[in-house]
Design a protein that fits this description.
Elements: H1 6-25, H2 29-33, E1 64-66, H3 75-79, H4 92-95, H5 135-144, E2 149-150, E3 158-160, H6 165-173, H7 178-193, H8 196-201, E4 206-209, H9 235-239, E5 241-244, E6 255-257, H10 269-280, E7 286-292, H11 303-311, E8 316-320, H12 325-328, H13 331-339, E9 341-346, H14 355-362, E10 366-369, E11 392-393, H15 396-401, H16 406-411, H17 415-432, H18 447-465
Parallel strand pairs: 1-2, 1-3, 3-4, 4-5, 5-6, 7-8, 7-9, 9-10, 10-11
Helix pairs in contact: 6-7, 10-17
The protein binds 2-acetamido-2-deoxy-beta-D-glucopyranose (NAG) (4 copies).
């Protein structure tokens, strides 16, 4: 599943991440954690129906206009997935099935699950071997079936730009010069600023999805002179909202973190509800578990301490990636382990966030974080601001120093508190998964719906925030 150059990436990104946080953000952490926590407030979601004043249009205030970009910005990247010149990994498998990847097949012991295997981890139930960086295609697919698309840009609350920035990174990253890496981003900038939709608000109502970490799109910052593209440093993206799976400076830039895609892509509301019941009542013989590899070259990493503590505990189970590479990347095994564990350890890896944290939460396993940037400073639209409601925090310094026992810390949490966190996770499941873009959920709001609401609200705020912005008053 992982792109090649993993070791390089691991060492490099950690350095990069470290450098960036130190040079820009670290000293601001405390001021960022505390105040806003505006958080995903579930009670006051976006109002779907006004119902007043005769306005019955359920799409009122929610219309999205989607740019009809030339295929070189999206579809051509999918059809060219195998043309790699041997320089980058073939993406064909990961972009198959509308970006979901290959469907999972249940092993025999799983087939009896639910009535007649109704809860087995199979493609028919929405389970796929989805790549962690496949969001470009999944989000675009969801948008194409969004119920409030409009062709009248003047009626739109936001404008979507279906550029596959993450796939563009992948196809030009290895063995290309800076100009080639940036060519598509620059091409996009030229295309966009010439459009009447752009001129209306200088692009401040525009958004795109770059389904990787923000580090991959800001090459010329203090972080990484030789890594990635400069998409996030262009004048156009300074005005737009860019959705990424990890933000580089949460709350400071225009990049906003949304969940990594997990392996679960429900097709119907019933898929979601069935899975919620399944994880609520799941047997959880393991107190804790960990899936991941050590980072031997990185002195800041606490992975080796995590692995050592887990190995020494009979209550901890892990799927190691260091030796049997195939083992930890079998999605079915990962989900089955998380579904039978109470707590899932989520230390930083190549960067602060992990796709694994979302796999854990979707399996009803309470995530244990060791750094606030792994989740609490990200995903403000999708996760509750009060992180104690759904997760456990153990500061990494104690683990690194060897004076904190993770097992003892977790055992001290009273069972009712654990049950309450799991209940919260069960409630969060819908908003942490991306539905199969080829189907339409009826009432359930998924991660896509929450993200679009977040964008619309953000655009609306940017409007009222600036008096010059009378452009929107007429909508
Ligand atoms: C927008 O226009 C295209 C091309 O004419 C059409 O296929 C599509 O259905 C229209 N979409 C909406 C939401 O009206
Ligand atoms: C790309 O540009 C950076 C400066 O932004 C430079 O340090 C680096 O060597 C360049 N990489 C290549 C492959 O030209
Ligand atoms: C971004 O917005 C500012 C302020 O409205 C505007 O002056 C600028 O031209 C916009 N940038 C682009 C690339 O359109
Ligand atoms: C463990 O060590 C860290 C780092 O030296 C220190 O900050 C922390 O207070 C210690 N915790 C305990 C429980 O001794």
């Amino acid at each position: 599943m992982e792109m090649s150059g993993r070791v390089h990436r691991a060492r490099f990104l950690l350095l990069v991440a470290a450098a960036f946080w130190v040079c820009i953000l670290y000293f601001r952490l405390s001021s960022i954690i505390a105040p806003s926590e505006r958080a995903a407030s579930f009670a006051k979601g976006y109002v779907r129906r006004s119902g007043r004043g005769g306005y019955d249009d359920p799409c009122r205030g929610r219309y999205v206009y989607m740019h009809d970009l030339p295929p070189r910005f999206n579809a051509d990247m999918l059809s060219g997935c195998g043309r790699t010149d041997g320089r980058w990994p073939d993406m064909c498998e990961q972009v198959s099935n509308a970006g979901l990847g290959k469907p999972l097949h249940a092993p025999p012991e799983d087939e009896g699950e639910g009535e007649g295997g109704a809860l087995a981890l199979t493609g028919a139930r929405g389970w796929y071997a989805t790549h962690q960086f496949a969001l470009d295609a999944i989000f675009d697919g969801r948008m194409r079936r969004y119920e409030c698309l409009t062709n009248d840009s003047s009626a739109a609350a936001a404008v979507f730009v279906p550029f596959y920035a993450g796939f563009d990174f992948a196809r030009h990253h290895w063995g290309y010069d800076n100009a080639t890496r940036d060519a598509a981003s620059r091409d996009l900038a030229r295309w966009l600023v010439g459009r009447p939709e752009w001129r209306r608000a200088g692009g401040r109502d525009h958004f795109l999805v770059a389904g990787r970490t923000a580090w991959d799109f800001r090459r010329d910052t203090c972080t990484s002179p030789n890594w990635g593209t400069n998409l996030l440093l262009l004048a156009i993206t300074k005005n737009m909202t860019v959705l990424v799976v990890e933000s580089s400076a949460p709350g400071l830039g225009n990049d906003m973190a949304v969940p990594y895609p997990t392996y679960f892509h429900p097709r119907t509301d019933a898929d979601v509800v069935g899975w919620q019941r399944r994880i609520e009542s799941s047997d959880r013989p393991w107190l804790m578990s960990f899936v991941g590899a050590p980072r031997p070259g990185d002195p800041r990493s606490i992975r080796s301490q995590i692995i050592a503590q887990c190995s020494a505990s009979s209550a901890c189970r892990q799927l190691g990636c260091a030796t049997g590479a195939g083992q930890c990347h079998t999605p079915g095994n990962i989900i089955r382990l998380f579904r039978s564990s109470t707590f899932c350890l989520q230390p930083p890896g190549d960067s602060y966030t992990r796709r694994s944290a979302f796999d854990a939460m979707v399996a009803g396993c309470v995530p244990v974080f060791f750094h606030p940037a792994s989740a609490y400073l990200q995903y403000r639209w999708h996760l509750p601001g009060d992180h104690a409601r759904y997760s456990v925090f153990i500061p990494e310094d104690g683990v690194r120093a060897g004076n904190v026992s993770i097992e003892e810390t977790l055992r001290r949490i009273p069972p009712p508190a654990v049950r309450s966190m799991r209940k919260e996770l069960v409630r969060l499941v819908p908003r942490l998964v991306y539905a199969d873009p080829r189907y339409t959920l009826e009432t359930v709001k998924d991660a896509f719906d929450v993200a679009v609401e977040g964008v619309i609200e953000k655009v609306a705020k940017s409007r009222t925030g600036s008096p010059a912005e009378s452009w929107l008053k007429k909508i």
